[in-house]
Amino acid sequence: MSLTKINSNSSETIITNSSTISLLFQQMRPKQWTKNLLVFAALIFSPEVMNFENLGKSIFGFFLFAFVSSCVYIINDYVDREADSKHPKKRYRPMASGALNPNTALTFGVLLLIGSLVVSFNLNPLLSVLLLTYFILNVAYSFKLKHVVIIDVMIIALGFVFRAIAGGLVIDVPFTPWFLICIMLLSLFLAISKRRHELTLLESSKGEHRKVLESYSPTLLDQLNSIVISATIISYSLFTFTSGHTIHLMWTIPFVIYGVFRYLYLIHIENKGGSPEKVLLEDKPILFTVFLYVISVIIILGVFE
Prior knowledge:
The protein contains 14 helices and no strands. By secondary structure, it is mainly alpha-helical. It folds into two domains: 30-175, Tetracycline Repressor, domain 2, CATH 1.10.357; 176-305. Helix 3 packs antiparallel against helix 8 (151-171) and helix 7 packs antiparallel against helix 8. The chain starts with a helix and ends with a helix.
C-alpha cells in the first residue's frame, strides 16, 4: 500500500470521527441546556457558602444534569427516529436524517449515563439517586406519560424542581419549601404555556402531532395558567418574607411579576412560548429581567445578611 493511500485513509478516518463527534454533540441538544441553569439557584441564595469550590461543584451539577437529560433525548430520538423522519422540522435531527448511526448514539447515551451517575455519586450519593429518578421518570414520560393529560405538564415541572434540589445537594445546603413550591408553579406555567402554543399552532391537526393535545383546549389552558400565575406570585412573595433571609428580598418581587407578565404577552400577542429556553435567549426584555433579578438577589443577600 502506498504512503499516499495510507495518508488518504487516515485523513478520511479523522474526518469521519470528527463528524461523528459533532453529530453526537448535536444529538445531545446543547440548546436545551439552559434549563439546567436552575442548578445555580442554591448557590445564588446561599451567599454564606459562595466560594470557588462550591461554584465548581455547581458547574459539575449543571453538566451532570445536562448529560443525563441528553441521555433522555437520545433514547427519545432513537425510538421516534422513523416518525421524526417524516416531520417537517424533526427530520433534520441526526438520527432521523440518517446522518448518525442509531446504535452508535444509543451506546454513547448508555456510557454517558453511567459516567454521569458515577461522578454524581462521588459528589453526593443522593445526587446520583436524584439523577437516576429523573432519568427513569423522563423515559417513562417519553414512552407513556406524555400522552396523559395534566400529568404531562406536571412531570415537566417536576424536572425543574429536581434541578433546584440538585443544586442544593451538590453544595450541601437545604432549600425552603416555599422556594421549591415557587419553582414548581413557575415550571407549571412554562409547561402549560408550551402546550397552549402547540395547541394554537396545530389546532387543525392537533391529534396528528401530539396525542395529548386532543385533551386540551385554549380555554382550559388559560384557566390553568391563571391559577398557576396567581399562586406563583403569592408563593414567591411569601418566600421573600419567610425564607430566613433578609426581608429586603421583597424588592425582587417586581422582577418576577414583570417576567411572568412579559411571557404572557409573548404567548398571547406574539404567539411565542413553545420553547422556553429559546425565549430566554432571544427575548431581550426577559433576558435582561433575569439578569437584573440574579444581580439584585446577590447584592441584597450580600449587603443585608
